Batch of 2 targets.
Target 1
Amino acid sequence: MAQIEEQVRVANWMVFLIGIWLILAPFFTWYTEVTSAMWSSIITGALLVVLSLVEALKPSFYLPVSSLYIVIGFWLVLSPLLAGFSDVLSATLVHFGMGIIVLALGIGSIIGMRTQA
């Protein structure tokens, strides 16, 4: 049981780091001129940071927080198409790549904690 809780904790901190990266990515991968991509990255990154801190402070919130990770992961994957910046390769790669990872971490956290119960 403790091993699964530790894996969920590690996944949570990975989401925290992804959130920090998403906040900084527009400035390091040069897509600040594409407003929709920049704000999508900054807002979703900030949401991930806040949610990961909530889950770190209140582990009993793993289910709603991990469910929101999945929603945010889907947004990150689909946002280049939905927000109209799929022609900006750096923004698309950042959003898609981080979205897939956030989706996997959210799903993995839910499955791991459910198998523990």
Note: Residues 2-116 form one domain.
Target 2
Amino acid sequence: MSEIIQNIFIIIGFILVAGLGYFMIVQSDPDERLREYGSPDVVSAQFLRQMNVLQTLELDTSVISNQRFQQLRSYRQPVNPLPIGKDNPFTNE
């Protein structure tokens, strides 16, 4: 096959791919996107419902204020800082 015909097929293929991309991205129905992701009002209502549920939660702090919990000791050991990197062999120090 000659180079001219091969180039024509490549150009036609590029135009078809670009047209398909244009059709899928630009010409898509906005209502379809709203059905997929939900309208902003629905998302806001869901968020507000979840926020109300979180605000009505009451935490029981009796475990933390218990005397046994207060008497627990921490056995952590401090971590000694290590030098970062290595010495520069090209310095005159």
Note: Residues 1-29 form one domain.
